[in-house]
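Hello K.,

You asked for the raw outputs rather than the summary table, so here they are, unedited. I folded two proteins back to back in the same session to keep the settings identical. This is the first:
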Amino acid sequence: MADAPVVAVRGEAYREVAPELARFTVTATARDRDRESALTRLAERAAAVRVLLDSAEPAIERRETGELRVWPETRRSGERVVAYHGSVSTTVTVTDFTALGELMLRLAEQDQVEVSGPWWSVRRDSPAYREARHAAIADALTRAREYAEALGARVTALVELSDARMAAEPLLARAGGGVGGLAGGAAPELELDPRPQPVEAAVEARFTISEPVLG
């Protein structure tokens, strides 16, 4: 068996699957000539965002406070402070896409709040990756059998199998520009079309084959 002919192949699989998660960011900002007033406004606006997110808790899988920034605005010359700025961002991960558009618009209605996203993705442990890996192995075996058949031989055993590249990380695909603040009144309806996510897998395999029939 050690001297048996060997065929080396690469098996690949590519799938497009429905996203499982949607992520967006919501940022509250404030500006005032007085530092304490700027901070107070920022805290109030961040609290209003939290209230809205609390009300949408069933659709939210995860929320994380990101960067908090407070900085002075100075004149072009010198260090004289003319105003203070502040911002705080929250990243929200949603699993219920039917509630996503309404939630983003409700947040965008808030004073001095910016909403950006969504970015679609597949869970790291999604069955789609397992299915892609199985398909890549099946592709490698099919190719090996085809090469062996062309030589008048058959595949006899697997010598080695390796992961040529890890299954693609969930890709984040932005659906459009950020949603700015909206005028007062009832929020308009917004339907979002989830973007299919690519899932890939590739393997490299070596198989022994029976003695080729040449000539």
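The second followed immediately with the same parameters:
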Amino acid sequence: MRHATKVASVVAAAALGLAACGSSTGNTTSPGGTGGSTGTAGGGGSLKIGMAYDVGGRGDQSFNDAAAKGLDKAKAELGADVKEASAVNGESESARKDRLQSLIDAGYNNIVAVGFAYAKAVGETAKANPDVKFAIVDDASPDSAGPNVDQITFAEEQGSFLVGAAAALKTKTNHIGFIGGVQTELIKKFEVGYEAGAKAVKPNVKIDVKYLTQPPDFSGFNSVDKGKAAADGMYQGGADVVYHAAGGSGGGVFTAAKAAGKWAIGVDSDQAKTAPADVRDVILTSMIKKVDVGVFDFITAVKDGTFKAGNRIFDLKAGGVDYATTGGHIDDIKSKLDDYKQKIISGQITVPKS
């Protein structure tokens, strides 16, 4: 990880503090987060929730928006008072810690950190604030662990297996693709599960794989241009179905699919409902990762006094991952996908993670 200078850290903290003070109305929502840290707040209840988004922020139509859905539900149904802040490309570890601490300093004593990039920041901030309850999405490492930290993770490989099977059942060229935003262990789970599902249907299927960036460059989760270029190359090379696990970069994959007259597969949210209207008809299905469920469960536990630290895994059996049927494009193969789904739940099929 890169290290910010002391001056940069102070500036980042001050900027966040100013942003956090900028809004306190009842119905505000955070902008997309691509231009800098932003903060919004709403409501006046005693249940105070601060949410720190990953790169792309609210409005990415994917991972961050799935988390935002859980926060919005808590605001509507539990009367939560919420404040939001977003990460930026290339930021330092100290900037992430500053963001979490600024939410706490503003009075938000239950914090949700969206994304594994917050692991060290959560671990250190949680230790420094033992009376604050934390949840981190997508990390179960020792870096973020603590007696006041709920580690929310998902069986992404299981959901990816199902959309991989769908891709293999639908391909007419016996050639499909996978685009990952950043090459990390987490995104590797999506790739490996997708490949396993496709090969369970067609052992000889050709699968192209492309990662947009390598750590510590996380811009691969928020670069429409990179996503489009990678997908263009795959479609031109003969692939007719491409699955992305690339956050906001997935918008470029959908644009490329539309231009090529081919299929794309979405991720995290049901993207045939969230993507721009002009590309929804090329989204074959989406691997749904119910981040909203994990976030809402954390907030509910805080409200009910039943919070427990440790790792919670949301898999197919728990309803934490699934595949989408919006558009009706996979209606003809749904029974086959559901058969695979039940075999995974029963343990008849064990999906690899790496």
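The first helix runs from residue 6 to 20.

Happy to rerun anything if the numbers look odd on your end.

Regards,
P.
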